[in-house]
Every structure is written in C-alpha cells, then in structure tokens.
Amino acid sequence: MRAVVIEQFGVLPAVREVPAPAAPAGAVVLDVEATGLCRSDHHAFTGHDGDVTLPHVPGHELVGRVAALGEGVRRVQVGDRVTTPFVEGCGRCRWCREGASQVCPDQTQPGFTHDGSWAEQVVIRAADHNLVPVPEDLPAEAVVTLGCRFATAYRGLTARAGLRAGEGVAVIGCGGVGLSAVMIAAALGARPIAVDVDPGALALARDHGAEVLVDTSGLDAAQAAAAIVEAAGKRPTVTVEALGREQTTDAALFALAPLGRHVQIGLYAAPPRLAMPRVIGQELTVLGSHGMAAADYPGLLELVVSGALRPQDLVTRTLDLEQAGEALLELGERTRPGVTIIRP
C-alpha cells in the first residue's frame, strides 16, 4: 500500500510503497477514507514524542471502513464505517472498564505508538472497545476531526469544565482544536470568546459562533489577559488554551475569574513554568483534556447528526498523500486557518 513515511525527524517525509498491514488478534484493518492533519502530528514528526520510532507513518484522526478482522473481534463486521478516538484503551484495565480509556496505562495511539492513518490502510487495536460506528450519510469532513480535536474539546468543555449555558469561555488559540472548542461552546449555549493573533483564524471563529474576538498580537500575558477581560466586559469563568505555550496559558490564568476553570488542551514542547501563584490565590481549577473514550461519543455524535455542530464547516483544505508531507513541514512555520484533511 501507499503511505507517507517519516524516515528522519524534521526531514520532509515522502510517499512510499510499504507492506499492507495484517490484523492482530483483537484488532482490525481499516481502509482509510479520510484522515486529518493535526498539530500533534507535527510533534511526532519533530521527535517530541518518545513513543515514535522510525521509520514511521503519522496520522491519528480518521474515518474508514473495516477491511479485515483479527481473531476475536465481535462487535464490528467487514464493511462497517467507523471512526476511533486517537487514544485507544486496552479494554481490560480498571480505567477502561470505568469508561476512562483516554488515561489507560496500556493505551495505543495510531500515528504515535504504531503506524497511523496517512496511508491507504491502518490497524486499530482493541477494536471492540475503541471503534465508533458512524452514519453512512455523514460526510467524511464531518467525522475526521471527531477522533482528536472535537473529541478533546468536547470532553474538555463538558466532562472536565462542566460548561454551562450562558457562561463566558475564552478560547486561546483558534487552530483546529480551538475552533472546535468555539463551535462546541456555541452549540451548548455558552458565550465563546475567541483569542488569537491571526485575523483569518479570528474570522473563522466569528463565523462559527464566537461572540467576542480578541487579537493579542504583540501583547504579553498580562496585557493579553487585560484585553480579553476588556473585550468580554468581565472575566470568563472558563478558559481553554489550545496552543501549548507558556505565555498563552498564563494569559488564560490571568484572565480567568476567581474560582474559574481552566482547560489545558495544547501540548507543550517542553515542561512549562506557569502562573501558579494566581491559581493558588484565586482558587482556580486547572484541568487537562487529552482525548475521549469511545464510550462517550454518543453525545458528541448526536450534536453532529442533528446539525447543531458542523465540523465539516471548518475544513478549508483537502490534500492527497503526495501533498501531505509538505503540509506537515509547513506546520513548523505557520498554521493555516481552519482544518486540513487528507484523502489517501
């Protein structure tokens, strides 16, 4: 099969012919219909993720169709159309049994722990536990980002922050996951505040539900926080950081109302030093959000199927495998507004 293969960290990957995968026990092989380009893929590409060994096929957001079943798979059949969370639980441990597969100590992640979905086929482990059936009439553009960006944002806002209708929520960093958080907050009846330095990203956020836009170009953390509070008219009770940078996380913590909840989604390239005195003094709650278990997908899918949430509207670019490597390299230099998907 054809796949994008990283052969050296940070060096432009190329499309190669590689052996087609077989399905181990408990796993399936999927024919990939579409897959996403996510900033987490760039972390793998640059060698920031210790699970990645070379040569390596990236890609962890996907929609596809079951092509082959490993021994013991019972809940899906060949031909089923499915997606999967990018954090895949073992299905056996305490955490998986309690519905918290996103923190499974024996988790696997396509595109990180093993070859991913920037290919014609991909293996999904513990398939009965991790696969999520999706309707045939949903376009691929509506499903791809449910594997990472929308799932992470949805769980972060609902299960972690407990976002309520009418609350102000400042989303700092309006790339794919940040825009997902803006759209989900709007669909839940909250008041999204979009914060970014890119006019294109802010325009997309406005078009998809943001009530307040804040351009923080050239501002330090304290100045950015002041700009958020001034634009919104009051301190938000929930903040989301979707970039993984010290300065923007500090801006979120400085802006947050006393007793507020901060959701950290952005991944850091190095351990950060953050404004913990404010966390202590204002009794802020800092929450991580790293994916969502397959068992929690029905609520998210219900919003998508009903039309209240339209992930497909964020897709601004569709590439083939030959174009994917250049797009991955470009992520280190700039972020394009919206979401890019790849169709193998």
UniProtKB/TrEMBL annotation:
Per UniProt, the keywords (alphabetical) are: Metal-binding, Oxidoreductase, Zinc
Q: Which cofactor does it need?
A: Zn(2+)
Keyword Protein biosynthesis among record annotations = no
From what superkingdom does this record's organism come? Bacteria
tRNA-binding: present as a keyword of the record?
Answer: no
Query: In what residue span(s) does the Enoyl reductase (ER) domain sit?
Result: 10-342
Coiled-coil stretches noted in the UniProt entry, renumbered to this chain: none
Pfam families, sorted: ADH_N, ADH_zinc_N
Matching Gene3D superfamilies: Medium-chain alcohol dehydrogenases, catalytic domain
By sequence similarity, the record places it as follows: Belongs to the zinc-containing alcohol dehydrogenase family.
What's the protein here called?
Alcohol dehydrogenase catalytic domain-containing protein
Q: From what organism does this protein derive?
A: Brachybacterium rhamnosum
